[in-house]
Amino acid sequence: MHNKEKKQGIIAGISLVIMAIVAGFSFGYAHNNLVTDSPENTLNNLIANKSLFFAELSGWSLILITDLIVAIALYFFFSKTSKQISTLTASIRIIYTLILGIAIVQLFKIIPILSSGNPISDELTISETASHIQLFEKLWSIGLIIFGLHLIGLGYLSVKSKSVPGLLGYLLYFGGISYTFLHSSRRLSLFNTNILDSVENILALPMALAEILLAFWLIYNGFRKSVSKIKA
């Protein structure tokens, strides 16, 4: 493996780890604590915790940047395995990132609402805030259908690669199929929401592990190769 590929692997791996940590905060902690089933309570939470909401927005912005870095870095890392599939896979992730960006804009549109005089007393404002949040979640869900296809592409490249462990490739296949199936089912209302929630809770860990394990392997492999070369 050439030095350029090793560096791209390390860049992709570190970016993926950063993304996972930031996503855990922005969505797992901030978003889930601010957004409730009640639109009025959600707006109350946003007004009372503006700093947390702004931190969430900063996190999403960082995720957007790291997503683009990962798409480009993985393209260079896998280009020798299959330039066509690597190009397609990177393009799919960039499309996902663009959709995520449009979704994030919906959250930024809430900022002027929080800056107004007394938004909680205005039913229209409460409804508008809820609408922005719902559109964010809907667009992101649509994006995750495409993200699943990206993981399937990474799975193919990992299995075909001579350097990446085959197990990682099959985990990526599984994660990609799970993302695409679950979010397609949500958008098309193929199953009861409670059933999909239960299935997603079961699959959440292996879905997340697929890309995280690839990230750790890319970092380990990149530095291990470099160290070996230095010792030699």
From TrEMBL:
Signal peptide: none annotated. Pfam families: DUF4386 (PF14329). It comes from the Bacteria. The chain crosses the membrane at residues 9-30, 59-78, 90-111, 139-157, 164-182, 202-223. Keywords: Membrane, Transmembrane, Transmembrane helix. This is DUF4386 domain-containing protein. It comes from Gaoshiqia sediminis.
